[in-house]
Amino acid sequence: MKRAVKFFLVLAVTILVCSPVAAQVTKQQQELRGEVETKTGKKVRLFHSGTQDVKKTICIGDLIPVYREVYAYGAIKKTEVGKIRVLSYVGEHYFEAEVVAGKIKTGDVAQKESAACLVHPAPDED
Fold first, then answer.
1. Nearest CA to 80 among 100, 103, 62?
2. Full-prediction pTM beyond 0.70?
3. CA atoms of 43 and 4, how far apart (whole Å)
């Protein structure tokens, strides 16, 4: 009997000690999951295909609406969550942009006409 009580006591203490550690999630993990909202004034990166039609459609200085797509009841519901302003080109497949309105998450879609870009957080500049 004494041995069983000791075992359950050690098990309970182990669970209590480990649970807060397991519950902590880093900011980087939250960004990758799309749980962190980027607010007005912050920079983001827009991933695109790099094709000429995207580069012709989306220009520096454009104000583009951003949509969040949610799968519900067998269909994809698309709602506007904010707007971004395109600031510059970054390599072959990215634009740098600034959030002008709304709260934008990783994985949201910036769309102008038929060109669409996937929103990613901008790397931290230290």
1. 103
2. no
3. 57
